[in-house]
Specification:
alpha+beta, Cytochrome p450, five-stranded mixed beta sheet, monooxygenase, heme binding, Cytochrome P450, steroid hydroxylase activity
Length: about 400
Amino acid sequence: MTLLADQWAGNSKHFWMRGEPPREPVVLDEASGIWHVYGYPEALEVLGDTGVYSSETARRFAPSGGEEFAEGNLFQLDPPDHRELRRLTAQAFTPRVVADLEPRVAEITHELIDRLQGRDGFDLVAELAYPLPIVVISELLGVPAGDYPLFKGWVDAMMAANGQYDPSDDPEKQAEDARPQLEASDRITDYLLEHTRERRKRGREDLLTRFVQAEVDGQRLTDHQIAKIGNLLLVAGHTTTAMLLANAVLCLDACPDQQALVRADRSLVPTMFEEVHRFMTPVSAVYRATGTDTELAGRHIPAERMVMVWCAAANRDARQFTDPHTFDVTRDPNPHLGFGRGIHFCIGAPLARLEGRVALDILLDRYPVLGLDPHRPPTFIPSHDLIGVQDLHVVAEPAEGRGGAR
C-alpha cells in the first residue's frame, strides 16, 4: 500500500497507516491531558463500559452549550437516556425499511453512472460516492430533492470546520474552531425540525413520519429529538458511506491482486467492504470521558479525563488481526470497530452496508477497467479523526451496454 503510506507520511496522528505500531496500547498526551487508546482489547473495554467511560463529553467539557448539543444526540447519551431514545429510533428505522431500499439504491447508482457516459475520467467522490448516500438518506427521510444543495453546503461547512478542530488545542481555540461546525449543524436541525412539525399535521410515507409515530411503553420522540436523529442520519450516514465508497476504490487500485479476486468472484464484495472499513476506517476516533478513576492496560486514568479511542489503530492491532497491515478482501471473520461497538454500534450500519454492496457491485460491472488518474493524485480530508479522500480522480473504461448488480 505504498500510495496510502506516502499520502499519510506527514500525519503523525495516523501512524498506523504507515504500518507503525503504537509504542503502548494506552498513551497519555501530557500537553493536552488526553488519553489515547490504540489497542483493540483496550478499545473494546472502553466502548463496552458506559459506567466508567461516558459518551456525554459535550456536557462535561463544554458546559456552556453541552446540554443543548447532547439533547436527542445518540452519540452524546448514556443509559438510561440512550436506551430509551435508541429503542424509539429503532422502531422506525427497522431492518425491513433498509432492505426495501435495495432496488432504489441500485437505480440511483445507475442514474449517476449514466450521467458519465462519454467520459473516460471523472471525480468518483463528486460524481458517485457523495451524491448516492445523500440522495438515499434524503429520500428516506422525506425531504425535497431540490434541497440537496442546501445539505451539501451545510455538510461542507461542517467538514471544513472539522479539519480545523483539534481536541488537543486549548479550550478557547477549540471553542472558536468548533463554532462553524455547530452553526452548520444547527441549520440542519432547524431545517429538519420544520419538516418534523409538518409531519405532525400531515404524515407521509417516510422516515420522519415513522419517527413521529414511534411509541414504546407510552413514550414518543419529541420534535427536537426527531430533528437531531435526522441530522445524525443525514450527516454521519452519508459522509461515512461516501468515504467508504471512495476508500474502497483507492484500496482496490493499490492492490491489483485483490481487485482481480473481487472481479472474478463478486460474492466477495461484502467481505471486501468490511475489510475497507477495517483497513481504512473513515471515522478513525471516537471520544469518551471518565466518570470515575479507573485503570486501563495498567495505566491509572483519573476521573473527568478525555479519552480518544482510535478505532482505526485498533483495527490494525496484531493481537486481534493476522497480518493487520495487509488488505485482504477474503478476511473472515473481521470484527473491526469501524461501526463502533456496544450500545453505540452505528444504527445506520445496515444501510451503509447495503449502499456499499450494491454501489460497488454495479461500479465493477459498469467499469471493467477502473483506476486512479496518475496525473491527478487524490487529496485527503484535512482532519485529525477522519480518514478519507476529498476527491478521487479516476480513469475508467465502461462496459458495453448497461451492467447491473448481481
